[in-house]
């Protein structure tokens, strides 16, 4: 009977371990995938490892994650232990109050703690970055250390320290020689908890970071869903590091034991090798990360350029090449919506270059956040396509230099969707029951409303509330009757794998999808679409406008623009690059999505209107709630 | 030991600054008019009224609590037997098993969650396996089920480790004594093991429920854009909408609800212990 229960337990345990390790195994396998997909394995390759090593972003994130975890663990362990010893000899009232205070980060949802830290730093104007992240980590780690040290102290004989001191020990000696050794197990497990919490933390780090400081979690999150498989490679590297550390920890005592066999009792200080290994690793990663070549006579040697750009929106080499050529260091931060970028800028964070979209540029100009470009420093305008210059949001390009541009349209599976349906129905195909359960909507309030308004024959810049409400009804009907999925960038991979028949998509993403899967097509309804562009602008509070101008030139020039466009798949503003990539032998030859439509009078450029935007945001969140209630 | 009490002073100051002050700031922002500075501001309860009068917001809150409760129950059902098994193993096996459960936590939580997208997606491995049994059409990703799975996956280790800690502290002679006195294994479990492991269970529930109720990246990654929880709402207010005062108000509401729930749980715990004392 008992045996039977053990077997059952064993089976449960094995299943559970399998459950825990299945995703990790999956991640390791896909770090060797040749393709960019996260779901179909196309062949063995080491390209993501190479990409990881070349990507400064990732190596820095790895370094940040572990250096913060180690520093926070050390500080939290020391402070927490000292405070626990102090508190245990304090008056009961103080002890109880402090217990409640320590409960604050532990008994509150993490997001609340995170927001508390964020408001603290913002209210007292502490510049967010590495230091704030470290402080926050220390702050939430200490209570965990104290929690595991306290019970050990409580079980100590209170007379122990007094006895030591009566025998002539100084208080310090009594502490270090008598008390600490007695509570070591508690300290070690506290440190372990602190380290685990810190390494794995996302929410708190996400809210308190700034100035381009990112740990691995933030890198993954801001990649949004435009997956870059090198993150799998980084994680595999972490697995390897952990395995090595564990082996060392577990083997070192064995080896040491063998050596000192004659020496009698062996102290098993398990954490000593662990700390040593961690330190070595941090130094190694740091060296790897800072091991660039330092040449001289470069125009911007030692300066730093802060760029705030969309996730996965630059080529593989452009940043490295630019750094090499100018001697500057580029710090890149990523956002996944214009609004997210706007809030940071409005809160006074300083960047040298932003890459917002059309309507957001208009807003930033109107609200006086941008500086005029110094056109004497720019040599790029005549290289750019005429169609993307002088657009309504910035008629003379006084503030902005286009980066990518394109349209919004419908990506469809030619084998499942009848092109005649598309031509006849346009966007109304998203209400066609024939395709029920087979459509993706895109989680963008502007473009969803664009689609609905265009389907109804209105302008996408309408300020008429009745028309907006009609569009809202259209969208609600769509989510309630069509069994839709509202996605963001995962649409790219999913459509490339042919998982659904239809989806609303940005032309640049469609280019990528079509290059991966020839069954896919891109269609722009005659009723019009959003002719969008993302452009580089320099905020008023930029610290290094000269360098920013240099980068704008570099990114608009053939090499930089080619690297960007061929890697990301979005249409380059550089006319020659666009022609080459879409022409014979180019990466996007024969792909209609790559060349934005010009000349359709129904196509529009988004304009910013604060009131309309608010209405649309509100209505869109209601559409999403309707969708989640329908599902 | 009294002479060591001074050692606590620096930490008390630190805690006041880094733990108490932030909460006070959230409370302050939550009753401020938007755009006010912290020095000159006028009070308002609009943000709270806005939240409690909108059925959609309340629905989101309700759904978040519900999924957190489901997650906690599943973690308890899976976690308890696992913890029990670990605690009854030999010390060597215990250490290995605990390590096995801890290691995944050192690999980034988001990356692990990402991997589930690949595993669950249409045409992914799990669906193909289900296909063998004729269940190939079942939608796995972007459902409540996938969000639940993601939460259980991420938070189950906390439950196991907490329960295991309290079970392994248990004095094994108690079990023998109970058996000697004629109790059946089931009785021993119910009368001895379970009450003694209760502190661990309570800690486990706390450690699972809290992150589950406020998580925003698990629903975002595994639930798709249409799966919106209270954590997403708070994130939205701070990151994309920029209404910090409203965001602070939602955070406060969350904090208060959590506090009440935790007090309730603690009360159950103390009552349970009190009952035990009375019987003895």
From TrEMBL, chain A:
User: One of this protein's Pfam families, by short name?
Assistant: SBP_bac_8
Instruction: Indicate the transmembrane segments per the record.
Output: 12-32, 61-87, 107-124, 130-150, 187-209, 229-251, 271-288
Domain ABC transmembrane type-1, first and last residues per copy: 62-252
SUPFAM superfamilies linked: MetI-like, Periplasmic binding protein-like II
Asked if the keyword Kinase belongs to this entry, the reply reads no
Alphabetized PANTHER family for the sequence: PUTRESCINE TRANSPORT SYSTEM PERMEASE PROTEIN POTI
Give the protein's recorded name: Extracellular solute-binding protein
TrEMBL record, chain B:
| ABC transmembrane type-1 domain segment(s) | 61-265
The listed locations are: Cell membrane
Kindly give the membrane topology term recorded for this protein.
Multi-pass membrane protein
Keywords attached to this Swiss-Prot or TrEMBL record, sorted alphabetically, are: Cell membrane, Membrane, Transmembrane, Transmembrane helix, Transport
The record's listing under InterPro entries reads: MetI-like, MetI-like_sf
Q: Name the Pfam families for this protein.
A: BPD_transp_1
Give a GO biological-process term: transmembrane transport
- PROSITE patterns referenced in this protein's UniProt entry, alphabetically: ABC_TM1
Which is a Gene Ontology cellular component entry for this protein? plasma membrane
Q: Where are the transmembrane segments?
A: 12-32, 60-84, 96-120, 140-161, 196-218, 246-265
In the record, the note on similarity to other proteins reads: Belongs to the binding-protein-dependent transport system permease family. CysTW subfamily.
Could you tell me which PANTHER family the record lists for this protein? INNER MEMBRANE ABC TRANSPORTER PERMEASE PROTEIN YDCU-RELATED (PTHR42929:SF1), INNER MEMBRANE ABC TRANSPORTER PERMEASE PROTEIN YDCU-RELATED-RELATED (PTHR42929)
Q: What is this protein called?
A: Spermidine/putrescine ABC transporter permease
What organism does the record attribute this protein to? Sellimonas catena
Q: What is the lineage of its organism?
A: Bacteria, Bacillati, Bacillota, Clostridia, Lachnospirales
């Amino acid at each position: 009977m008992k045996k039977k229960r053990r077997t059952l337990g064993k089976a449960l345990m094995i299943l559970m371990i399998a459950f825990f390790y299945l995703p990790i195994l999956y991640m390791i396998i896909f770090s060797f995938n040749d393709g960019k997909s996260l779901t179909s394995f196309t062949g063995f390759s080491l390209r993501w490892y190479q990409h990881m090593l070349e990507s400064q972003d990732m190596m820095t994130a790895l370094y940040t994650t572990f250096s913060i975890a180690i520093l926070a663990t050390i500080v939290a362990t020391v402070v927490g232990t000292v405070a626990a010893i102090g508190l245990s000899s304090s008056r009961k009232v103080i002890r109880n109050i402090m217990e409640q205070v320590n409960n604050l980060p532990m008994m509150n949802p993490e997001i609340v703690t995170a927001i508390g830290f964020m408001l603290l730093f913002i209210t007292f104007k502490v510049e967010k970055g590495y230091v704030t992240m470290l402080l926050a980590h220390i702050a939430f780690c200490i209570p965990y250390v104290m929690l595991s040290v306290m019970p050990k102290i409580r079980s100590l004989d209170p007379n122990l320290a007094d006895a030591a001191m009566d025998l002539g020990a100084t208080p310090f000696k009594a502490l270090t020689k008598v008390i600490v050794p007695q509570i070591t197990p508690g300290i070690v497990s506290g440190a372990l908890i602190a380290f685990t919490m810190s390494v794995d933390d996302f929410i708190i780090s996400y809210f308190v970071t700034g100035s381009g400081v990112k740990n691995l979690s933030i890198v993954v999150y801001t990649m949004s869903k435009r997956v870059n498989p090198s993150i799998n490679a980084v994680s595999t590297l972490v697995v390897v590091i952990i395995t090595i550390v564990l082996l060392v920890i577990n083997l070192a005592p064995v080896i040491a034991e063998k050596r000192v066999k004659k020496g009698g009792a062996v102290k098993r200080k398990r954490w000593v090798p662990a700390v040593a290994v961690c330190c070595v690793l941090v130094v190694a990663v740091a060296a790897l990360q800072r091991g660039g070549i330092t040449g001289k006579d470069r125009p911007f040697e030692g300066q730093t350029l802060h760029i705030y750009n969309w996730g996965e929106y630059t080529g593989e080499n452009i940043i490295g090449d630019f750094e090499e050529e100018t001697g500057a260091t580029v710090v890149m931060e990523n956002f996944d919506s214009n609004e997210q970028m706007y809030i940071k800028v409005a809160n006074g964070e300083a960047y040298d270059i932003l890459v917002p979209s059309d309507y957001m540029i208009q807003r930033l100009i109107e609200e006086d956040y941008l500086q005029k470009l110094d056109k004497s420093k720019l040599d790029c305008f005549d290289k750019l396509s005429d169609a993307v210059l002088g657009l309504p949001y910035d008629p003379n390009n006084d503030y902005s230099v286009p980066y990518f541009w394109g349209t919004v349209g419908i990506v469809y599976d030619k084998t499942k969707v009848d092109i005649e349906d598309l031509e006849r129905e346009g966007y109304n195909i998203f209400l066609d029951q024939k395709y029920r359960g087979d459509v993706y909507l895109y989680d963008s309030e502007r473009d969803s409303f664009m689609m609905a308004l265009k389907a109804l024959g209105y302008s996408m810049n309408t300020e008429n509330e009745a028309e907006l409400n009609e569009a809202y009804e259209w969208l609600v009907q769509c989510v309630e009757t069509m069994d839709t999925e509202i996605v963001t960038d995962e649409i790219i991979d999913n459509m490339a794998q042919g998982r659904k028949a239809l989806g609303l998509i940005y032309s640049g993403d469609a280019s990528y999808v079509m290059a991966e899967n020839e069954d896919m097509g891109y269609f722009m309804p005659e009723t019009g679409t959003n002719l969008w562009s993302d452009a580089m602008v320099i905020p008023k509070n930029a610290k290094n406008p000269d360098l920013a101008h240099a980068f704008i030139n570099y990114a608009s020039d053939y090499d930089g623009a080619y690297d960007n466009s061929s890697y990301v798949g979005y249409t380059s503003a550089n006319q020659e690059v666009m022609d080459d990539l879409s022409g014979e032998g180019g990466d996007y030859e024969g792909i209609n999505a790559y060349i934005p439509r010009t000349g359709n009078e129904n196509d529009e450029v988004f304009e910013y209107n604060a009131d309309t935007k608010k209405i649309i945001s509100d209505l869109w969140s209601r559409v999403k709630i309707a969708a989640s209630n329908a599902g | 030991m009294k002479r060591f009490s001074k050692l606590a002073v620096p930490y008390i100051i630190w805690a006041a600054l880094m733990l108490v002050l932030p909460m006070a700031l959230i409370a302050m922002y939550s009753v401020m008019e938007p755009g006010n500075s912290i020095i000159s501001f006028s009070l308002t309860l609009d943000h709270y009224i806005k939240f409690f009068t909108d059925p959609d917001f309340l629905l989101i809150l309700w759904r978040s609590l519900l999924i957190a409760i489901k997650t906690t129950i599943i973690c308890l059902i899976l976690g308890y037997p696992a913890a029990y098994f670990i605690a009854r193993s030999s010390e060597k096996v215990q250490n290995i098993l605990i390590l096995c459960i801890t290691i995944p936590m050192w690999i980034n939580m988001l990356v692990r969650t990402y991997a589930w997208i690949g595993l669950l997606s249409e045409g992914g491995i799990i669906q193909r396996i289900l296909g063998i049994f004729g269940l190939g059409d079942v939608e796995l990703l972007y459902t409540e089920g996938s969000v639940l799975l993601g939460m259980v996956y991420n938070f189950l280790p906390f439950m196991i480790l907490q329960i295991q800690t309290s079970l392994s502290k248990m004095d094994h002679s108690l079990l023998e004594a109970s058996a000697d006195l004629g109790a059946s294994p089931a009785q021993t479990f119910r009368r001895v093991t379970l009450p003694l492991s209760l502190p661990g269970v309570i800690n486990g529930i706390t450690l699972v429920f809290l992150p589950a109720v406020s998580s925003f990246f698990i629903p975002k990654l595994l639930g798709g854009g249409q799966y919106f929880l209270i954590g997403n709402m708070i994130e939205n207010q701070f990151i994309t909408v920029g209404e910090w005062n409203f965001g602070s108000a939602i955070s406060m509401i969350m904090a208060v609800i959590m506090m009440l729930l935790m007090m309730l749980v603690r009360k159950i715990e103390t009552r349970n212990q009190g009952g035990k004392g009375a019987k003895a």
